[in-house]
Design a protein that fits this description.
Layout lengths: L3 H19 L4 E6 L2 H6 L1 H14 L6 E6 L11 E5 L5 E3 L4 H13 L9 H5 L1
Helix pairs in contact: 1-3, 3-4
């Protein structure tokens, strides 16, 4: 960094990503980031949600955050979606590509992708 202006530019560029992780939107996306989740690829999944929600202009209604162990290590990476008045949705074996599809179909369209949920994985 060479100047205060450069630091301010970096801060402005990253502002949306920080807000996504700390916001209070009506929909919460929580990515399991314990050791098992990270080893299974949760970090790129978290990044895909943060960047995708920002890109789609959903940051006013969707908060993306991380948590520790969710308790179903064999299904990592795990993503839970909480919406007021609705049952929690747990997506399993997530990838950045699946995250993009969840953003489009679930977060934007309101349709749960059943084939990616834990209920489909254990049946």
């Amino acid at each position: 960094m060479k100047s205060l202006a450069e630091l301010a530019a970096i801060r402005e560029k990253m502002k949306d990503k920080v807000i996504l992780r700390e916001g209070s939107g009506e929909i919460r996306v929580v990515v399991g980031m314990a050791t098992c989740g990270i080893a299974a690829g949760a970090r790129p999944v978290l990044s895909a949600f943060v960047e995708g929600v920002s890109k789609e202009g959903l940051s006013d209604k969707v908060t993306v955050s991380q948590t520790g162990c969710i308790g179903v290590c064999q299904y990592e990476p795990v993503v839970e979606i909480f919406e007021a008045g609705k049952e929690k949705v747990t997506y399993v074996k997530m990838t950045p590509e699946k995250a993009a599809e969840v953003i489009e179909k679930h977060l934007k369209g309101g349709n749960v992708i059943q084939e990616y949920t834990i209920s489909n994985a254990i049946s």
